[in-house]
Design goal:
Two copies of one chain form a homodimer.
Chain A lengths: L7 H16 L6 H8 L5 H6 L2 H9 L13 H17 L6 H7 L6 H21 L2 H20 L11 H14 L5
Helix pairs in contact in A: 1-2, 1-4, 1-6, 4-7, 5-9, 7-8, 8-9
Chain A binds a DNA duplex (30 and 30 nucleotides) through helix 3.
Amino acid sequence: MDAKPLTTREALLAHGKRLFWLNGYANVSVRDITGAAGVDGALVSRYFGGKLGLFKETLSQMDTLDIAGIPDREALISELVRIFDEAERSPDVPTVITLTLANARDPEAAPLVKEAMDARWQKPLAELLGSEALAAMVTAVTFGMSVAEKTLCLEGIHRPGTPAYRAQIEHILRAALESPE
Amino acid sequence: MDAKPLTTREALLAHGKRLFWLNGYANVSVRDITGAAGVDGALVSRYFGGKLGLFKETLSQMDTLDIAGIPDREALISELVRIFDEAERSPDVPTVITLTLANARDPEAAPLVKEAMDARWQKPLAELLGSEALAAMVTAVTFGMSVAEKTLCLEGIHRPGTPAYRAQIEHILRAALESPE
DNA sequence: GTGGTGTGTCAACAATCGTTGACTTGCCAT
DNA sequence: ATGGCAAGTCAACGATTGTTGACACACCAC
């Protein structure tokens, strides 16, 4: 379906994003990326100035919340449930959540991720909710559910895509939005 | 204060636990550990059969819940709030949470962590609550709050140790315990 | 004394890492 | 045709990784 006459630079960016965001900066080598892209191993330094340069470039592809399209909190809950449910269903898709968890403790990557997360996700969410405290709690439960389901594979979390899973997510999201300030 | 006539093996185990659990398996080299312990770099392979062997050994030091000492759910909430609040206050203490987050995506360490977490934390918690679903939700919000506070440093999360922080934790923990099964 | 065992030291191994410089190739403007 | 520029290839670099084998030393049983 998708035509793929990507430039070398685009291919490196795509595979770099996928591998970095899923497996973590330290666990991915430059040769992993260039190998997946089918190009020479020297081209990462060529195009992006090095491994870290490519990683920084992938961060600019971080999803942002479309604030304008969300009228009220009830719509926000629906939207978050939908986004989150879809993201969790397929384990091979890099998301903001996998990016953060995979690089949470990396000495080089973590500061960059934290900065990008704050500017491109947390700030819009806080603006949407009119509260940094509520935005923080929403992010907390979102990440927590992802860790429980994808990282720890807890049996108590229902399978993503099912109504029972959506009920769990929606319940805890609603509770987060009713947190004490 | 603390006398420190540790054996070499004990010293390697202690520094290995601290570094592995805080920084992640991939981000810690054998020489980091032996250097911190002040011993020769070859002794990790000597005593533990290799880097991975030492890591496995540290997993046996994972905290477990003292089920016998907790009479009801209200006491559980208090205990979880207390444990969690204390753990969050000092960033340099390795905990179950830092261990999991630091090794969430490591191809070698993650399976071992997942297995140990399930046997030594999740199972006791589920038994205590009489529900895998509730135990999973409790773990989810616990980890989520830790990510929000320690990894992302969200301003909306209050400082650990304050009453406002304990209120946030207690509120979301209570909500997790009222999740739909 | 003698042999053995446990403990630690040292140098070096092969493998992998990110990166670099020299080189070839192809294309376009002149 | 020719000069120049961008794109890609290739081999190699120094650094770091985990691991190993040979060796030195201390201690204890016999």
